[in-house]
């Protein structure tokens, strides 16, 4: 399934409180350099994904599973990471200006 379709189904899933659509399962996905500006990935499973250099400005990653994710040089400025699990994630060089990290779990 293509990323655009996964994001569309996930948005439906979040807006219908899980009654329709499907939670995004992007475990181990190669999303390096992806343009995910403003994407709704709240509660998504991104365990082990490669987001090196991804543009996640203003994205909603609240309560997402971001364990062991490669976020090196990703632009997370203005992103919502509240409640996200960032255990083992590599944030080297990531831009976290104005990002919401309230309640985020880290090693």
Brief overview, please?
This protein is largely without helices or strands and 107 residues long.
Describe this entry's structure for a reader:
- The protein is mostly loops and 107 residues long.
- The chain has one domain (24-107): Pectate Lyase C-like, CATH 2.160.20.80.
- The chain contains one helix and no strands.
- The termini are far apart.
Fraction in helix: 10-25%
Structural class: little secondary structure
Shape: globular
CATH class: Mainly Beta
What is the beta-strand fraction?
A: under 5%
Average predicted local confidence, pLDDT:
97
Q: Nearest-angstrom radius of gyration?
A: 12 Å
Q: Report the strand count.
A: 0
CATH architecture: 3 Solenoid
- What is the terminal-to-terminal distance? 32 Å
Number of domains: 1
Order of helices and strands: H
Number of helices: 1
How would you classify the quaternary structure?
A: single chain
Q: Main β-sheet: number of strands, strand sense, barrel status?
A: none
**What is the assigned CATH homologous superfamily?**
E3 ubiquitin-protein ligase SopA
Named CATH topology: Pectate Lyase C-like
Describe the protein's topology:
Layout: H1 3-15
Features:
107 residues, single chain, little secondary structure
């Amino acid at each position: 399934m293509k990323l655009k379709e996964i994001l569309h189904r996930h948005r439906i899933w979040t807006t219908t409180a899980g009654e329709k659509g499907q939670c995004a399962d992007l475990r181990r996905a190669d999303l390096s350099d992806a343009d995910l500006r403003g994407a709704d990935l709240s509660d998504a499973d991104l365990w082990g994904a490669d987001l090196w250099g991804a543009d996640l400005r203003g994205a909603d990653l609240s309560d997402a599973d971001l364990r062991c994710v490669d976020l090196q040089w990703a632009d997370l400025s203005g992103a919502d990471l509240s409640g996200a699990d960032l255990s083992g994630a590599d944030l080297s060089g990531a831009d976290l200006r104005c990002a919401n990290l309230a309640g985020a779990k880290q090693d």
